[in-house]
């Protein structure tokens, strides 16, 4: 994330055929001005604070990401 903050290009490879570029998003971005999106984000934050999370082990994460 620090690289993205310094305007470096960060690409994440998922499997052999998929790649994603990280882009910083600020409060002025249209996506984050949507009330439903903001409510969903806040709900996730609250769930984390309340301990309503699950731990994903490395093997399952690798499988999910196609690694």
Quickly list its features.
40% helix; 67 residues; flat; alpha+beta
Strand residues, percent: 5-15%
Q: Which residue ranges are poorly predicted, with pLDDT under 50 across at least 5 consecutive positions?
A: none
Number of domains: 1
Count of extended strands: 2
Calculate Rg over CA atoms.
15 Å
- Average the pLDDT over all residues and give the rounded result: 87
Written overview of the protein:
- The protein has one domain (2-62).
- The chain has a two-stranded antiparallel ribbon.
- The chain is of the alpha+beta class.
- The two termini are 21 Å apart.
- A hairpin with a 3-residue loop joins β1 and β2.
- The protein has helices at residues 2-5, 35-49, 58-65, and strands at residues 10-14, 18-22.
- Helix content is 40%, strand content 15%.
Summarize the SSE layout with pairings.
Blueprint: H1 2-5, E1 10-14, E2 18-22, H2 35-49, H3 58-65
Antiparallel strand pairs: 1-2
Describe what is shown at a glance.
The protein is an alpha+beta fold. It is 40% helix and 15% strand.
